[in-house]
Automatic annotation (TrEMBL):
The lineage of its organism: Eukaryota, Metazoa, Chordata, Craniata, Vertebrata. InterPro entries: MIEAP, MIEAP_C. One of its GO terms (biological process) is mitochondrial protein catabolic process. It is found in: Cytoplasm; Mitochondrion matrix; Mitochondrion outer membrane. The keyword Protein biosynthesis does not apply. It comes from the Eukaryota. The gene is Spata18. It holds the Pfam family MIEAP. Belongs to the MIEAP family. This is Mitochondria-eating protein. Keywords: Coiled coil, Cytoplasm, Lipid-binding, Membrane, Mitochondrion, Mitochondrion outer membrane. It comes from Hippolais icterina. GO terms for molecular function: lipid binding.
Length: 209
């Protein structure tokens, strides 16, 4: 593991953070729409298509964070053998090591975990009606992004929304087909990106009375 100065660590973290936020925005602007096109071949209901994509995004972050937590425990245990600094520097060393060795992450396992979770989600169609593997590449990209976001200090995460919650303009944009006078969220289109409880990138929701 490279021995970096605190200033260099902060610069590297800031650079990775900016790239990952840009990647999150690109997935929202491009990959999400491509996934919609794939799903529309099987599902005519645009609301259901958007629900599927939102749940896929949230589940991808959940699965990636779970995998990251397991890997970090193993890496910290290995690095601790020869580590001379304190717990804080060991944490940074582990994050840096994982960021440089992304092959430690078996993304295929996370993708299958996400698809399994979607298959049993009561808000989504039964597996007999649609095979969520059609958006396999979209889920894979989200899992890789979510995993990389965990190597930041502090890590980035997405907000989990609940149908019927009060619309929060500081966290979400209204979708173009929303009722702009409605105070409650009918369903979520895309999650907000968060850092330490603060909104970095707004998500998207549909509001209806």
């Amino acid at each position: 593991v490279r021995s970096w100065s605190p200033t260099r660590c902060r610069r590297a973290n800031a650079s990775r953070r900016a790239c990952l936020i840009a990647r999150f925005n690109f997935i929202y602007a491009k990959d999400r729409l491509d996934a919609e096109i794939l799903l529309k071949k099987f599902i005519c209901d645009i609301e259901m298509v958007q629900r599927i994509i939102y749940i896929a995004a949230v589940e991808s972050f959940r699965a990636a964070k779970k995998a990251f937590w397991k890997i970090k425990i193993g890496v910290k245990g290995t690095l601790a053998i020869d580590h001379c600094g304190g717990p804080a520097s060991l944490e940074i060393a582990a994050l840096d090591y994982i960021a440089c060795h992304k092959d430690l992450y078996d993304v295929c396992c996370s993708v299958q975990e996400v698809i399994c979770a979607m298959n049993v989600n009561p808000k989504l169609p039964c597996p007999q009606n649609v095979d969520f593997n059609v958006i396999n590449c979209f889920i894979r990209e989200l899992c890789c992004l979510a995993f990389s976001m965990q190597t930041l200090a502090p890590p980035l995460d997405v907000a989990f929304g609940v149908d019927g919650e009060l619309f929060n303009r500081s966290m979400y944009y209204r979708s173009c087909d929303s009722d702009f006078t409605a105070p409650f969220v009918a369903y979520h289109v895309w999650p907000a990106l968060m850092e330490n409880g603060c909104v970095l990138v707004k998500g998207e929701v549909v509001t209806r009375k």
